[in-house]
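Sanity check record (used in CI):
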Amino acid sequence: MITVEVFEAEHLARMEVQAVQAELAGDRWAMAQMLAATGRCFTIRAKADGHILFCGGALQMHAHHATLWSALSPQAADYGKPITRRVLAYIGKLEHRRVDAVVRLYHDAAHRWMAALGFRPESTLGDYFENGEDAMIYRLVR
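Expected output for Acetyltransferase (GNAT) family protein:
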């Protein structure tokens, strides 16, 4: 159903990203290269046609803190369970005491996904995105 591979900058740079991730709409090449350089990222493709469904990973903030990032394609919802299982396995291997993630305040599906991954809401971040939208930061309680 899905295949998992090491993330490469080209994956994110060429990926069709879901509309709600508007901050990824423009030129993503520099950001993709920076993320690939961390070595803590992976890509999920649809096995049938090789379509990139998900790119994600963790940015280490310091030895005990990592922040998750992800980009999902519009087709990712069709593969929700296997993507979630793979992300859970990835998170389970992280050794950080604190693992967090930031989602748009109005993005209900992302809030449900954070709960499914075991994260709990921590705080609202006002004026977080470039367009002035607010965000919610989630923290994994270990």
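Residues 2-99 form one domain. If this sentence no longer matches the regenerated tokens, the check is flagged for review.
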